[in-house]
Amino acid sequence: ISDAIRDGAEGFFRTQYGTISKMATLLAFVILCIYLFRSTTPQQESSGLG
Questions:
Q1: What are the TM regions of this chain, as residue ranges (predicted)?
Q2: Number of domains comprising the chain
Q3: pTM of the model
């Protein structure tokens, strides 16, 4: 019985970690796009940060 429970738990965690990694990758990409296309303020441009 314990082997069946272990197999089910491993399948569950595999699915969960797969979903979490896909969502984290997508969120990181969205944050990167927001960062790359942000507008710069005049203060940032004058200090060389833009």
A1: 20-37
A2: 1
A3: 0.70
